[in-house]
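#data-curation
PF: Archiving a pair of folding outputs for the training set. Convention for this channel: one message per protein, sequence first, structure tokens after, nothing in between. First:
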Amino acid sequence: MTDGLRNLDPALRSAWHPLCRSGEVTTTPRAFALLGERYVTFRSPDGDLRVFRDRCPHRFAPLSLGHCEGDVLRCSYHGWVFDADGVCIEIPALGPDATLPSRAKLDGPSAVAESHGMVFVAPETPLTPMPTIASADDPAFQRGDLPVLETRANAGLLADNFLDMAHFPFVHAATFGAGEAREVPNYTVAREGYAFAAAYEHEFANREDPGVAEGIRPLLQRRRLTYRYTAPFHLELAIEFLDAGGTNVIGFFLTPIDDETVRVYSSLWRDDLGGSEERMRDAIDFEIAVVAEDLRLQSRFAELVLPLDITAEIHTRADKTTVELRRILSDLVQAVRGSAPASSGN
């Protein structure tokens, strides 16, 4: 077993991480931090995505201070120019016919991809699967993005909090928790490699349902919650309103910046708002309030580490998802260290 998972654990380099939203990347270079490193992102005029470490190999100047000239990136310090593959093709100080150093090229992550409006990178060869959200490709769903947040936190503890079902009546008493039953119904967790899914049904107070105010449906209704997790920090909750109809999908994507800071991306996919932008804004505002309740607690943790030793804490049957989170992350750490069976991530 491992002692615990901190934001900058070296094992996290062998996994996919959200770096930024796709819409944040333009033809103007911009830097984003991940796992203690800065990456420069930009697009070619054709929209092709480029991601490199945010430093010129010459004097380590931030390339995010440079600018794009068509398909190439020019450093703002000495004007070195790099092509789409990160190879230096011009050093102004040497003149047009110079032989350029073979080492004059940019470093980048092992893998880059885009999915459901997010840019993902894997600093080293990823052992974890590329995260996806099925609802993002369904035209029946309307998307809304919460503002990007940065907070003092441990990414593993934030993931634990998202998957935790027993805290609703207490942490979220001012939003949705007041109508939540305190007892968590029995449920099962289905694991597949470095991912799992878990679902259960329960009754809740559906204050968002217009049918309640109209007297069509009672306040107390049924819903099905399906959690989907992909290591290390990609989380999804699909809430199906069994009485009122419709589905609310919450995406929660965590980016460890340094050992004390996490960037939080969250998006909603709804198929029950009738395309109303006003109702989506209300849904986003509500979700912002929910996240604030969580962060108010999570940012105060003295130890910013997720325990991975299952015996270090007390667990109950209500904690199946969060126990599985610890097992998967422990397996990832052990696999990177070379002490886990090769099949653990398949």
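PF: Second:
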Amino acid sequence: MIARPSFWIAAASLVAVVGLTGCERLPVDTVQVGYRGTGMEQVTNPRIAKSLEAANTVPEALEPADSSGPKARQIYQNVKVLGDLSVAEFNRLMVAMTQWVAPEQGCAYCHNVANFADDSLYTKVVARSMTQMTQTINAKWQVHVGATGVTCYTCHRGQNLPTKLWFTEPDAKVAGRLLGNNFGANRAGVEANANSSLPIDPYTPFLLEDKPIRVIGDTALPTGNRKSTMQGEWTYALMMHMSQSLGVNCTFCHNSRAFAEWEQSPPARATAWHGIRMVREVNNEFITPLTPIQPANRLGPTGDIGKVNCATCHQGVGKPLYGQSMLKNHPELSGPDHLLKTTIATPQAQAKTN
């Protein structure tokens, strides 16, 4: 029996629907950012953009505090950071931090309310380290955050923990496969690689360790070129994460006609290069050392602490909070002046090794 034409039309329609489920539903907005015909375009989905607006609004700033009077370290005990602020400025920041990180628990989230100088709560120790981290980012890493800077709210958004943290994958080489070795890839539903078949943990080698982020070798075969397809897949997984975290296309940072050429890349590529190194420093210098004091319920399956990546701050937009600066209302988080003189290498200077 031969099926009717209507059957084949219906079948073809079903296949088309299934095949398009991974694509953006129209309409989408496209902005050309390069020469016509080069594919230098940024595509945005107005429905997704609308949903991101509410998540990227900033809370109303508190009234400025009086900078005169005694310093916090002269009045309060055990003030190891921010002690040079006036008492009024110090208390204003404490209120702001409570709103940013623990609006439900209040002061008791970090403090023993019977003795505020006590360091027995691990959250207080963490908060002190995170304050130093924020100051360091604002002072040392202006090449990435610019004058906009960051505050606790940039990541926390009113939550005890940022919604976007990552843990090292347990035994990534065999995860998700019944037979054989999947080489850390080919697992469905992994946010880290944007649900692709690429490696499932691009964070550990690049945002914690200092593995080279390269796809194209700089020497000809057969000697000297050790840039393999497998290495390329790990790099692509990181790029997928960055693209998804910022809600942008590859051409946000790269020129489509010469992806590897720094001289032809948009300025955003250098900003991203510095951002990778900033995240790496934050994870190694400020977050990982806090692992021993964390309770078990805040550790990952391999016993590691939750670490940051691009999504922790950006949360789906090119500039966190659409570039709205909260730092201007909290200059005390700008950081120590000596870090402003820190010199950071340019990406072009390290292009061959990184």
